């Protein structure tokens, strides 16, 4: 007899829903960025390529995370962090590419990448090595260590090198765009620690009983906002600046 293994999403599985919509949204965004790349001026093509790579890498991971979640009911922690280890440093590259015209040095890119990897390594230890049943001290210790990396990027985007370089940029579009990306880092990225605190032993888990399935709910929502939103901001800068090249102001 032929048996078919079909993964079904229970109608009340809202986390499963976000895995599916997340997957499709990342895929659609990738197609969009790759196609639009052809419409922007040469110096913006790398930025759009990177935007598309970020959502494409995420789409592939969502494809696997979705199935992992549906068949085990558990958080796909390893896949999640593999995805982030590739995509978050690429977002740091985006910051660099936007400020390079204003004189950014290669070392700025490496500092941001180092901070992001720091943030993710400690976040991974916090989640993957959380003792059975959950430990508050474990989750808090690694949560704080991870947050140091986050604060470094936040500082760079708002007051540090990235902010200074953007301020010196001749282009109003670049100045505003970098400011918008800084808002993404402040508000959009802050959703991740909320998800982290839902794991067993995490503050929101112990204080409000928010179950560990909510880890993925927050991560999926945050990923859609940050990866696609971030890419769209870069796209907007690229397309606006390209129009200026085509039609130089009289
Ligand atoms: C596309 C994926 C992105 C932008 C992921 C960003 C992830 C973070 C900003 C994670 C931050 C964390 C903390 C600040 C503390 C707790 C552990 C983390 C890793 C969830």
- Indicate how many domains the architecture comprises: 1
Please name the fourth-level CATH homologous superfamily: Rhodopsin 7-helix transmembrane proteins
Uncertain segments are none
Number of helices: 10
Give me the strand/helix succession: HHHHHHHHHH
Bound molecules: retinal
**CATH fold category name:** Rhopdopsin 7-helix transmembrane proteins
Notable characteristics:
binds retinal; globular; 10 helices; 0% strand; 250 residues; single chain; Rhopdopsin 7-helix transmembrane proteins; mainly alpha; 76% helix
Q: What does the model show?
A:
By secondary structure, the chain is mainly α. It has a single domain (14-243), classed as Rhodopsin 7-helix transmembrane proteins (Rhopdopsin 7-helix transmembrane proteins, Up-down Bundle). Helices cover 76% and strands 0% of the residues. The protein contains ten helices and no strands. It has helices at residues 14-36, 45-72, 77-99, 106-128, 136-158, 161-168, 172-188, 191-196, 203-208, 213-246. It is globular. The mean pLDDT is 94. Retinal (RET) binds at residues 84, 87-88, 91, 119-120, 123, 126, 143, 146-147, 150, 189, 192-193, 196, 223, 226-227. Residues 84, 87-88, 91, 119-120, 123, 126, 143, 146-147, 150, 189, 192-193, 196, 223, 226-227 line the site of retinal.
In a nutshell, what does this entry contain?
The protein is mainly alpha-helical.
Task: Give the helices and strands, then pairings.
Layout: H1 14-36, H2 45-72, H3 77-99, H4 106-128, H5 136-158, H6 161-168, H7 172-188, H8 191-196, H9 203-208, H10 213-246
Helix pairs in contact: 1-2, 1-10, 2-3, 2-10, 3-4, 4-5, 5-7, 6-7, 7-10
The structure holds retinal (RET).
